[in-house]
Automatic annotation (TrEMBL):
<dbReference type="InterPro" id="IPR036282">
    <property type="entry name" value="Glutathione-S-Trfase_C_sf"/>
</dbReference>
<feature type="domain" description="GST N-terminal">
    <location>
        <begin position="1"/>
        <end position="81"/>
    </location>
</feature>
<dbReference type="InterPro" id="IPR010987">
    <property type="entry name" value="Glutathione-S-Trfase_C-like"/>
</dbReference>
<protein>
    <submittedName>
        <fullName>Glutathione S-transferase family protein</fullName>
    </submittedName>
</protein>
<dbReference type="Pfam" id="PF13409">
    <property type="entry name" value="GST_N_2"/>
</dbReference>
<dbReference type="InterPro" id="IPR004045">
    <property type="entry name" value="Glutathione_S-Trfase_N"/>
</dbReference>
<dbReference type="InterPro" id="IPR036249">
    <property type="entry name" value="Thioredoxin-like_sf"/>
</dbReference>
<feature type="domain" description="GST C-terminal">
    <location>
        <begin position="86"/>
        <end position="208"/>
    </location>
</feature>
<dbReference type="Pfam" id="PF13410">
    <property type="entry name" value="GST_C_2"/>
</dbReference>
<dbReference type="InterPro" id="IPR040079">
    <property type="entry name" value="Glutathione_S-Trfase"/>
</dbReference>
Length: 208
């Protein structure tokens, strides 16, 4: 399998961590979604990550959107089941993932508003950026409340919920160091410190 992505994307990192935890082999193909049309050949939306099945070279052999990819990948190996199969537990893990993804979506929009080179300073909207960052802070508060003093986000063991939270927190530290979530939410800081000791997190830091 080939995973098309970038080293900066938190969504690509989520898939890479899941692949590592499942002990699956794949080839990482780095692409710049802003500077290359290659990704469009596999994903008409022009987004990463995109997982390409072995021996395939067209959209029909591709799986895209990180949530779809990780759900598929979790079925490929019995090692370290990350998503419960059914019921309330499954819903809880996927809700944690949706919360973490929502934080990342909002933060990315805020960063694009602030730094996108094809927009002049007079075209940038501080109100739009503030609106997105308000979602980030609300999401962090919800994460902190949901985690409380538990060892893991959902249930009694490591799951996709923890991976998603770790990717969101890691990307915020990478791109928005001024958001002092460690000081505001010390339980999230402790959880991130624990996640950061896993080899899958050690091997996938976001880099420019």
């Amino acid at each position: 399998m080939k995973l098309i992505g970038s080293l900066t994307s938190p969504f690509v990192r989520k898939v890479r961590i899941v692949m590592a935890e499942k002990k699956l082999d794949y080839q990482l193909v780095l692409e710049d979604v802003w500077g290359s049309d290659t990704i469009l050949k596999m994903n008409p939306l022009g987004k990463v990550p995109c997982l390409v099945m072995e021996g395939q070279d067209s959209i029909t052999g591709a799986v895209f959107d990180s949530r779809v990819i990780v759900e598929y990948v979790d079925t490929l190996s019995p090692v370290g089941k990350l998503i419960p199969e059914r019921g309330r537990e499954r819903c809880e893990v996927r809700t944690w993932e949706a919360l973490a993804d929502g934080i990342m979506d909002a933060a990315i929009l805020a960063r694009q508003e602030r730094h996108w080179p094809h927009r002049s300073d007079t075209q940038r909207s501080a109100a739009w950026e503030d609106r997105q960052l308000a979602k980030v802070h609300a999401g962090l508060a919800a994460m902190s409340q949901g985690l409380g003093e538990k060892a893991w986000c959902s249930g009694s063991h490591f799951s996709l919920a923890d991976i998603s939270v770790g990717c969101a927190l890691g990307w915020l530290s990478f791109r928005f160091p001024e958001i002092a979530w460690r000081e505001t939410h010390p339980n999230l800081a402790r959880h991130m410190d624990k996640l950061s000791q896993r080899q899958s997190f050690i091997d996938t830091p976001p880099t420019a």
